[in-house]
Amino acid sequence: MANEFDEDDVGGGSAATGIVAMILPFATAIAALALGAILGVAIGWVVKPAVVVEKQVPRELTAAELQAACTPQLETKVTELEVAQSKITFLEKEVADRDARVKELETRSSASSSGGGGRNLAAELAQAKKDLEEARSQLDIARAEKEQLVVELTQTKEQLQKTEVALTEQIGKTETAKEDALVNKWYRFINDAQLEICEKGNRKKLGNCREVVQASLMTNTRRDKFSHCVRSAQATPSVKELEKGQSMPDFSEYIDQEQKQTKDWYVLFCDPTLPEVNEGLLNEKHLPD
């Protein structure tokens, strides 16, 4: 009996061990998947890119936008003023009618003899005077409201005019700044061209070379071409020396082949057909010919 019990016990232990051995890989895989999911969520949260909130930068209104924004306010004030004037006209007529009614009753009261009829007439006259005072009071209020509306309308117009003047001045300053920046770029181009072309020689030779380069480049036509390149947001023009066997690039032109100092040197401009961001050419008062 003891042996049979021992054998059964041993067999049961072997079966249990086999079940554990069979289940263990699945349990390990499930645990690994769960841990991986948890780590994935955690890592994803840590490395999650920050949400970029685009900040809207306010800009100045244009003259048209300013007028469009202020026009409804002005129209509202004008409409209120028209309504107030219509009310005043109505109340003025009402006061005139009630005043005439009072005078009529006063005349009838003076001509009437004392008695029941006289008492009724007196009561009617008293009511007419009360109505007249009420109409006059309403008329005074309406006139005061109109005066206030006139003041508000005038203030609104003045504020709009001040804003328009300030906006015009700011636009003028902005345009002036753009012109100044453009002029600075133009003179920087001329200076850089002189340094690029006139790099060797004594003081006199360098001075003569600089004069030739400046005289050749500073023409109205080239100034306008330079302006177009800047205003159309293309590459700023530059000067280059044509290498032997090299062909002239598009939109380029020789500086002056007749002058020794500038022979085989050319200006690389830009596509003249592209539209400008800002219309107009360089201001003549800034750039002498």
- Alpha-beta classification: mainly alpha
Mean pLDDT: 76
- Rg from Cα: 48 Å
C-alpha termini separation = 128 Å
Number of helices: 5
Helix content: over 70%
Per DSSP, what share of the residues sits in E-state strands of 2 or more residues? under 5%
| Main sheet makeup | 3 strands, antiparallel
Give the beta-strand count: 3
Overall shape: rod-shaped
Outline the low-pLDDT stretches: 1-24, 41-59, 279-289
Order of strands across the main sheet: 1-3-2
Order of helices and strands: HHHHHEEE
Quick synopsis:
This protein has 289 residues and is mainly alpha-helical.
Give an account of the 3D structure.
It is a single chain. With 289 residues, this protein is mostly helical. The protein contains 5 helices and 3 strands; from the N terminus they run αααααβββ. It has a 3-stranded antiparallel sheet, covered by helices on one side.
What is the topology?
Blueprint: H1 2-47, H2 63-111, H3 116-197, H4 203-217, H5 220-231, E1 238-241, E2 252-254, E3 265-268
Antiparallel strand pairs: 1-3, 2-3
Helix pairs in contact: 2-3, 3-4
Tags for this entry?
289 residues; mainly alpha; 5 helices; 3-stranded antiparallel sheet; disordered N terminus; disordered C terminus
